[in-house]
Amino acid sequence: MTHEEPAALLRGLQPGVRVVVRYRIDGGFTDALGTLSDVGTDGCTVSTRRGEVLIAYPLVTAAKTVPPAPPRRAARTRPL
Question: How do 60-65 and 18-25 pair as beta strands?
């Protein structure tokens, strides 16, 4: 496995790939886990459970592709 700059990795991916991106925010770092929905010249957009997250490439500290999310479990039913 080669070590590639995280922003360069994101720029080379096609939308629709599931990713996790660690990036800087005021006071520290945070992660965005979801589907890469847009790859632009200045940043990318990740669709997460909480909504769209626009991330500027200079703020990215780590990124990688991840496998698809596991299927959600069926709701448990209680006996009557």
Answer: antiparallel
